[in-house]
Amino acid sequence: MFLRKLQLQHYRNYAHLELQFPDRLTFLVGENGSGKTNVLEAISILSQGKSFRGAPDPELVQQGQSSFYLSCQYEWDGAEHSLEMGVQLEGRLQRRIKKDGKVLASRSALIGNLVSVVFSPDDLEIVQGGPTSRRRFLDALLSHRDPAYLQNLLQYNRLIRQRNATLKSIRTNRARLSDLDAWDSMLVNLGTEITRKRRQFLQEYEPILNQSIDQISGGKDRIKVSLFPGEARPEEFKRALMDRRMRDVATGASSFGPHRDRLLFICQDGSERDIQFRFSQGQKRSLVLALRVGQFYYLKQYLGRSPILLIDDVIRELDYKRRDYFVDLLHRCGQAFFTTPDLDGLQEAVETTGARIIQVPTLQRNA
Ligand SMILES: Nc1ncnc2c1ncn2[C@@H]1O[C@H](COP(=O)(O)OP(=O)(O)OP(=O)(O)O)[C@@H](O)[C@H]1O
Ligand SMILES: [Mg+2]
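^ Those are the sequences you sent over. The predicted structure of the assembly is below.
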Protein backbone atom coordinates (compact mmCIF):
# COMPACT_ATOMS: atom_id res chain seq x y z
CA MET A 1 0.00 0.00 0.00
CA PHE A 2 1.53 3.31 -1.12
CA LEU A 3 0.47 6.90 -0.64
CA ARG A 4 1.27 8.65 -3.90
CA LYS A 5 -0.09 12.18 -3.61
CA LEU A 6 -1.40 14.50 -0.92
CA GLN A 7 -3.17 17.85 -1.35
CA LEU A 8 -4.05 20.31 1.42
CA GLN A 9 -6.07 23.52 1.12
CA HIS A 10 -6.52 26.05 3.93
CA TYR A 11 -5.42 23.38 6.35
CA ARG A 12 -3.48 24.44 9.50
CA ASN A 13 -0.49 26.58 8.35
CA TYR A 14 -0.87 25.58 4.67
CA ALA A 15 -2.84 27.72 2.22
CA HIS A 16 -2.17 25.21 -0.49
CA LEU A 17 0.19 22.25 -0.60
CA GLU A 18 0.66 19.39 -3.01
CA LEU A 19 3.15 16.61 -2.37
CA GLN A 20 4.05 13.52 -4.36
CA PHE A 21 5.59 10.51 -2.68
CA PRO A 22 7.26 8.23 -5.17
CA ASP A 23 9.62 6.81 -2.53
CA ARG A 24 9.17 4.34 0.23
CA LEU A 25 10.71 6.51 2.93
CA THR A 26 10.25 10.23 3.37
CA PHE A 27 11.84 12.42 6.03
CA LEU A 28 10.00 15.71 6.67
CA VAL A 29 12.71 17.96 8.07
CA GLY A 30 12.19 21.47 9.45
CA GLU A 31 12.45 23.60 12.52
CA ASN A 32 9.96 23.53 15.38
CA GLY A 33 6.56 24.85 14.38
CA SER A 34 7.25 24.67 10.64
CA GLY A 35 4.35 22.31 9.90
CA LYS A 36 5.87 18.81 9.79
CA THR A 37 3.40 17.16 12.14
CA ASN A 38 0.58 18.99 10.34
CA VAL A 39 1.40 16.99 7.20
CA LEU A 40 1.37 13.66 9.08
CA GLU A 41 -1.84 14.70 10.80
CA ALA A 42 -3.51 15.39 7.43
CA ILE A 43 -2.54 11.90 6.22
CA SER A 44 -3.84 10.39 9.46
CA ILE A 45 -7.18 12.18 9.04
CA LEU A 46 -7.70 10.69 5.59
CA SER A 47 -6.63 7.32 6.93
CA GLN A 48 -8.37 7.21 10.29
CA GLY A 49 -11.16 9.77 9.98
CA LYS A 50 -9.75 12.05 12.66
CA SER A 51 -6.60 13.75 13.89
CA PHE A 52 -4.20 11.63 15.96
CA ARG A 53 -3.65 14.78 18.02
CA GLY A 54 -7.35 14.77 18.92
CA ALA A 55 -7.87 18.20 17.32
CA PRO A 56 -11.49 19.10 16.47
CA ASP A 57 -12.27 20.32 12.92
CA PRO A 58 -12.35 24.08 13.70
CA GLU A 59 -8.70 23.85 14.84
CA LEU A 60 -7.71 22.38 11.49
CA VAL A 61 -9.05 25.23 9.35
CA GLN A 62 -6.34 27.73 8.46
CA GLN A 63 -6.54 30.89 10.52
CA GLY A 64 -8.87 33.42 8.84
CA GLN A 65 -10.51 30.80 6.57
CA SER A 66 -13.85 29.03 6.94
CA SER A 67 -13.17 25.67 5.30
CA PHE A 68 -10.43 23.16 4.58
CA TYR A 69 -10.00 20.42 2.02
CA LEU A 70 -7.73 17.35 2.06
CA SER A 71 -7.27 14.72 -0.61
CA CYS A 72 -4.91 11.88 -1.40
CA GLN A 73 -4.25 9.26 -4.00
CA TYR A 74 -3.01 5.86 -2.94
CA GLU A 75 -2.21 2.57 -4.55
CA TRP A 76 -3.51 -0.73 -3.32
CA ASP A 77 -3.40 -4.09 -5.04
CA GLY A 78 -2.44 -2.59 -8.39
CA ALA A 79 -5.30 -0.06 -8.44
CA GLU A 80 -5.32 3.72 -7.76
CA HIS A 81 -7.79 5.11 -5.24
CA SER A 82 -8.59 8.55 -3.90
CA LEU A 83 -9.89 9.85 -0.58
CA GLU A 84 -11.20 13.37 0.06
CA MET A 85 -12.46 15.34 3.01
CA GLY A 86 -13.86 18.86 2.87
CA VAL A 87 -15.06 20.68 5.98
CA GLN A 88 -17.06 23.89 5.93
CA LEU A 89 -17.45 25.84 9.18
CA GLU A 90 -19.85 28.58 8.10
CA GLY A 91 -23.33 28.06 9.55
CA ARG A 92 -23.72 24.45 10.61
CA LEU A 93 -20.48 22.44 10.37
CA GLN A 94 -20.59 20.44 7.15
CA ARG A 95 -18.31 17.59 6.22
CA ARG A 96 -18.06 15.97 2.82
CA ILE A 97 -16.09 12.76 2.53
CA LYS A 98 -15.46 10.76 -0.62
CA LYS A 99 -13.73 7.62 -1.74
CA ASP A 100 -13.01 7.31 -5.46
CA GLY A 101 -15.38 10.25 -6.04
CA LYS A 102 -18.32 8.60 -4.23
CA VAL A 103 -19.73 10.19 -1.08
CA LEU A 104 -19.19 8.25 2.16
CA ALA A 105 -21.73 8.42 4.97
CA SER A 106 -19.36 9.37 7.77
CA ARG A 107 -15.75 9.89 8.83
CA SER A 108 -15.63 6.39 10.25
CA ALA A 109 -16.21 5.00 6.73
CA LEU A 110 -12.69 6.18 5.86
CA ILE A 111 -11.23 3.59 8.21
CA GLY A 112 -9.93 0.47 6.50
CA ASN A 113 -8.93 2.16 3.22
CA LEU A 114 -5.54 3.85 3.55
CA VAL A 115 -4.41 1.83 6.56
CA SER A 116 -1.80 3.53 8.74
CA VAL A 117 0.04 3.19 12.05
CA VAL A 118 0.99 6.41 13.84
CA PHE A 119 4.03 6.60 16.14
CA SER A 120 3.79 9.70 18.31
CA PRO A 121 5.55 10.92 21.47
CA ASP A 122 2.06 11.01 23.04
CA ASP A 123 1.94 7.21 22.77
CA LEU A 124 3.57 7.01 26.19
CA GLU A 125 0.05 7.77 27.46
CA ILE A 126 -0.98 4.26 26.39
CA VAL A 127 1.22 2.74 29.07
CA GLN A 128 1.23 5.40 31.74
CA GLY A 129 -2.02 7.31 31.17
CA GLY A 130 -5.44 6.27 32.46
CA PRO A 131 -7.62 3.40 31.21
CA THR A 132 -9.16 5.62 28.50
CA SER A 133 -5.96 5.91 26.47
CA ARG A 134 -5.45 2.15 26.58
CA ARG A 135 -9.03 1.50 25.46
CA ARG A 136 -8.62 4.04 22.69
CA PHE A 137 -5.50 2.20 21.47
CA LEU A 138 -7.33 -1.13 21.53
CA ASP A 139 -10.45 0.22 19.81
CA ALA A 140 -8.57 2.07 17.09
CA LEU A 141 -6.52 -0.99 16.22
CA LEU A 142 -9.49 -3.33 16.23
CA SER A 143 -11.57 -0.90 14.15
CA HIS A 144 -9.02 -1.08 11.37
CA ARG A 145 -9.20 -4.83 11.43
CA ASP A 146 -12.96 -5.08 11.64
CA PRO A 147 -15.29 -2.27 10.47
CA ALA A 148 -18.29 -4.08 12.03
CA TYR A 149 -16.58 -3.74 15.43
CA LEU A 150 -16.38 0.01 14.97
CA GLN A 151 -20.06 0.24 14.04
CA ASN A 152 -21.01 -1.79 17.14
CA LEU A 153 -18.84 0.42 19.29
CA LEU A 154 -20.34 3.65 17.94
CA GLN A 155 -23.84 2.27 18.50
CA TYR A 156 -22.91 1.09 21.99
CA ASN A 157 -21.56 4.53 22.89
CA ARG A 158 -24.80 6.15 21.67
CA LEU A 159 -26.77 3.72 23.86
CA ILE A 160 -24.62 4.58 26.88
CA ARG A 161 -25.35 8.29 26.36
CA GLN A 162 -29.08 7.54 26.13
CA ARG A 163 -28.96 5.31 29.21
CA ASN A 164 -27.11 8.02 31.14
CA ALA A 165 -29.78 10.56 30.15
CA THR A 166 -32.43 8.14 31.44
CA LEU A 167 -30.50 7.70 34.71
CA LYS A 168 -30.57 11.46 35.22
CA SER A 169 -34.31 11.58 34.45
CA ILE A 170 -34.91 8.85 37.04
CA ARG A 171 -32.96 10.88 39.60
CA THR A 172 -35.28 13.83 39.02
CA ASN A 173 -38.43 11.65 38.96
CA ARG A 174 -39.05 12.17 35.25
CA ALA A 175 -38.58 8.48 34.44
CA ARG A 176 -38.92 5.10 36.16
CA LEU A 177 -36.31 2.51 36.97
CA SER A 178 -38.04 0.07 34.60
CA ASP A 179 -37.34 2.51 31.73
CA LEU A 180 -33.79 1.17 31.88
CA ASP A 181 -34.88 -2.34 30.83
CA ALA A 182 -34.93 -1.60 27.10
CA TRP A 183 -31.53 0.12 27.15
CA ASP A 184 -30.01 -2.65 29.25
CA SER A 185 -31.07 -5.48 26.98
CA MET A 186 -29.64 -3.68 23.93
CA LEU A 187 -26.45 -2.91 25.86
CA VAL A 188 -26.02 -6.55 26.85
CA ASN A 189 -26.30 -7.69 23.22
CA LEU A 190 -23.86 -5.14 21.85
CA GLY A 191 -21.56 -5.10 24.88
CA THR A 192 -20.97 -8.86 24.97
CA GLU A 193 -20.23 -8.85 21.23
CA ILE A 194 -17.71 -6.01 21.69
CA THR A 195 -16.01 -7.82 24.55
CA ARG A 196 -15.95 -11.11 22.65
CA LYS A 197 -14.15 -9.40 19.74
CA ARG A 198 -11.74 -7.61 22.07
CA ARG A 199 -10.82 -10.90 23.74
CA GLN A 200 -10.32 -12.66 20.45
CA PHE A 201 -8.18 -9.77 19.23
CA LEU A 202 -5.99 -9.80 22.35
CA GLN A 203 -5.35 -13.52 21.88
CA GLU A 204 -4.13 -12.84 18.35
CA TYR A 205 -2.20 -9.71 19.26
CA GLU A 206 -0.36 -10.93 22.38
CA PRO A 207 2.13 -13.24 20.58
CA ILE A 208 2.81 -10.59 17.92
CA LEU A 209 3.41 -8.00 20.64
CA ASN A 210 5.80 -10.31 22.49
CA GLN A 211 7.70 -10.95 19.28
CA SER A 212 8.12 -7.18 18.83
CA ILE A 213 9.24 -6.84 22.45
CA ASP A 214 11.76 -9.67 21.89
CA GLN A 215 13.25 -7.83 18.95
CA ILE A 216 13.42 -4.49 20.70
CA SER A 217 14.54 -5.45 24.18
CA GLY A 218 16.15 -8.84 23.66
CA GLY A 219 13.32 -10.96 25.07
CA LYS A 220 13.66 -9.83 28.67
CA ASP A 221 10.20 -8.38 29.18
CA ARG A 222 7.36 -10.73 28.39
CA ILE A 223 3.86 -9.28 28.65
CA LYS A 224 0.42 -10.75 29.06
CA VAL A 225 -2.45 -8.59 27.78
CA SER A 226 -5.88 -8.95 29.34
CA LEU A 227 -9.18 -7.17 29.85
CA PHE A 228 -10.67 -6.43 33.25
CA PRO A 229 -13.43 -7.26 34.04
CA GLY A 230 -14.23 -7.85 30.33
CA GLU A 231 -17.52 -9.61 30.95
CA ALA A 232 -18.56 -11.50 27.81
CA ARG A 233 -21.35 -13.67 29.29
CA PRO A 234 -24.77 -12.05 28.68
CA GLU A 235 -26.32 -13.28 31.96
CA GLU A 236 -23.42 -11.95 34.06
CA PHE A 237 -23.40 -8.67 32.16
CA LYS A 238 -27.15 -8.24 32.74
CA ARG A 239 -26.80 -9.01 36.43
CA ALA A 240 -23.98 -6.48 36.83
CA LEU A 241 -26.12 -3.77 35.20
CA MET A 242 -29.03 -4.65 37.53
CA ASP A 243 -26.86 -4.70 40.65
CA ARG A 244 -25.50 -1.24 39.90
CA ARG A 245 -28.72 0.48 38.94
CA MET A 246 -29.18 2.49 42.14
CA ARG A 247 -25.55 3.57 42.16
CA ASP A 248 -25.78 4.55 38.48
CA VAL A 249 -28.92 6.61 39.16
CA ALA A 250 -27.13 8.41 41.99
CA THR A 251 -24.14 9.30 39.80
CA GLY A 252 -26.02 9.65 36.51
CA ALA A 253 -23.40 7.48 34.78
CA SER A 254 -23.30 3.84 33.66
CA SER A 255 -20.55 2.19 35.64
CA PHE A 256 -20.31 -1.21 33.98
CA GLY A 257 -19.55 -2.41 30.46
CA PRO A 258 -16.89 -2.30 27.75
CA HIS A 259 -16.68 1.51 28.03
CA ARG A 260 -15.23 0.98 31.51
CA ASP A 261 -13.13 -2.14 30.89
CA ARG A 262 -9.44 -1.84 31.56
CA LEU A 263 -6.74 -3.12 29.25
CA LEU A 264 -3.97 -4.58 31.39
CA PHE A 265 -0.34 -5.16 30.42
CA ILE A 266 0.80 -7.71 32.97
CA CYS A 267 4.49 -8.36 33.65
CA GLN A 268 5.49 -11.99 33.27
CA ASP A 269 8.28 -11.73 35.85
CA GLY A 270 6.38 -13.59 38.55
CA SER A 271 4.82 -10.41 39.98
CA GLU A 272 1.63 -10.40 37.85
CA ARG A 273 1.61 -6.60 38.22
CA ASP A 274 0.66 -4.07 35.57
CA ILE A 275 3.74 -2.63 33.88
CA GLN A 276 2.58 0.87 34.85
CA PHE A 277 3.88 0.25 38.37
CA ARG A 278 6.76 -1.98 37.47
CA PHE A 279 8.57 -0.84 34.34
CA SER A 280 11.32 1.77 34.19
CA GLN A 281 10.97 4.75 31.85
CA GLY A 282 13.21 3.04 29.30
CA GLN A 283 11.23 -0.19 29.47
CA LYS A 284 8.00 1.78 29.03
CA ARG A 285 9.38 3.51 25.96
CA SER A 286 10.41 0.16 24.48
CA LEU A 287 6.97 -1.24 25.18
CA VAL A 288 5.30 1.71 23.46
CA LEU A 289 7.44 1.13 20.40
CA ALA A 290 6.61 -2.59 20.53
CA LEU A 291 2.87 -1.83 20.78
CA ARG A 292 3.02 0.16 17.56
CA VAL A 293 5.37 -2.24 15.77
CA GLY A 294 3.03 -5.04 16.88
CA GLN A 295 0.12 -3.04 15.46
CA PHE A 296 1.96 -2.84 12.13
CA TYR A 297 2.60 -6.60 12.00
CA TYR A 298 -0.88 -7.44 13.23
CA LEU A 299 -2.59 -5.35 10.53
CA LYS A 300 -0.18 -6.66 7.92
CA GLN A 301 -0.97 -10.26 8.89
CA TYR A 302 -4.73 -9.94 9.28
CA LEU A 303 -5.50 -7.42 6.54
CA GLY A 304 -2.95 -8.75 4.09
CA ARG A 305 -1.49 -5.31 3.40
CA SER A 306 1.35 -3.27 4.88
CA PRO A 307 0.01 -0.19 6.65
CA ILE A 308 1.85 3.06 5.96
CA LEU A 309 3.86 4.29 8.95
CA LEU A 310 3.49 7.88 10.21
CA ILE A 311 6.36 8.47 12.62
CA ASP A 312 6.19 11.78 14.45
CA ASP A 313 9.44 12.81 16.09
CA VAL A 314 10.00 9.41 17.64
CA ILE A 315 13.22 8.10 16.12
CA ARG A 316 15.45 10.67 17.81
CA GLU A 317 14.30 9.45 21.21
CA LEU A 318 15.61 5.95 20.62
CA ASP A 319 18.99 4.69 21.67
CA TYR A 320 21.25 3.30 18.94
CA LYS A 321 20.22 -0.31 19.38
CA ARG A 322 16.53 0.47 19.04
CA ARG A 323 17.18 2.88 16.21
CA ASP A 324 18.95 0.08 14.31
CA TYR A 325 16.01 -2.18 14.93
CA PHE A 326 13.67 0.50 13.71
CA VAL A 327 15.63 1.17 10.55
CA ASP A 328 15.68 -2.56 9.91
CA LEU A 329 11.90 -2.62 10.26
CA LEU A 330 11.66 0.20 7.75
CA HIS A 331 13.63 -1.81 5.22
CA ARG A 332 10.97 -4.42 5.45
CA CYS A 333 7.91 -2.17 5.65
CA GLY A 334 6.00 -0.65 2.77
CA GLN A 335 6.13 3.10 3.16
CA ALA A 336 7.02 5.40 6.03
CA PHE A 337 6.98 9.13 6.78
CA PHE A 338 9.12 10.66 9.52
CA THR A 339 9.24 14.10 11.02
CA THR A 340 12.44 15.34 12.60
CA PRO A 341 13.88 18.83 13.28
CA ASP A 342 17.25 17.79 11.79
CA LEU A 343 19.05 14.73 10.48
CA ASP A 344 21.85 14.65 13.07
CA GLY A 345 22.67 11.02 13.78
CA LEU A 346 20.27 9.85 11.09
CA GLN A 347 22.52 10.18 8.03
CA GLU A 348 23.30 6.50 7.98
CA ALA A 349 19.61 5.58 8.18
CA VAL A 350 18.85 7.97 5.35
CA GLU A 351 21.66 6.64 3.18
CA THR A 352 21.05 2.94 3.77
CA THR A 353 17.35 3.28 3.06
CA GLY A 354 17.62 5.69 0.12
CA ALA A 355 15.08 7.94 1.80
CA ARG A 356 13.75 11.15 0.32
CA ILE A 357 14.18 14.36 2.32
CA ILE A 358 11.60 17.12 2.21
CA GLN A 359 12.55 20.45 3.78
CA VAL A 360 9.29 21.71 5.25
CA PRO A 361 9.90 25.51 5.35
CA THR A 362 10.82 25.41 1.64
CA LEU A 363 7.48 23.84 0.94
CA GLN A 364 5.68 26.56 2.85
CA ARG A 365 7.39 29.31 0.86
CA ASN A 366 6.36 27.65 -2.37
CA ALA A 367 2.82 27.12 -1.14
N1 LIG B 1 -5.48 26.46 12.20
C1 LIG B 1 -4.25 26.93 11.98
N2 LIG B 1 -4.05 27.98 11.14
C2 LIG B 1 -2.80 28.44 10.90
N3 LIG B 1 -1.69 27.93 11.47
C3 LIG B 1 -1.83 26.90 12.31
C4 LIG B 1 -3.11 26.33 12.59
N4 LIG B 1 -2.95 25.33 13.47
C5 LIG B 1 -1.61 25.25 13.73
N5 LIG B 1 -0.95 26.19 13.04
C6 LIG B 1 0.49 26.43 13.04
O1 LIG B 1 1.17 25.23 12.73
C7 LIG B 1 2.41 25.20 13.42
C8 LIG B 1 2.64 23.89 14.10
O2 LIG B 1 2.82 22.94 13.13
P1 LIG B 1 3.37 21.50 13.49
O3 LIG B 1 2.80 21.00 14.74
O4 LIG B 1 3.21 20.70 12.26
O5 LIG B 1 4.92 21.86 13.72
P2 LIG B 1 6.15 20.87 13.66
O6 LIG B 1 6.94 21.22 12.44
O7 LIG B 1 5.71 19.46 13.79
O8 LIG B 1 6.95 21.36 14.94
P3 LIG B 1 7.75 20.49 16.07
O9 LIG B 1 9.10 20.20 15.48
O10 LIG B 1 7.86 21.46 17.19
O11 LIG B 1 6.96 19.29 16.38
C9 LIG B 1 2.37 26.29 14.49
O12 LIG B 1 3.29 27.29 14.16
C10 LIG B 1 0.96 26.80 14.45
O13 LIG B 1 0.88 28.17 14.64
MG1 LIG C 1 5.81 18.12 15.34
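The longest strand covers residues 2-11. The chain has a mean pLDDT of 93.

Shout if you want it in another format.
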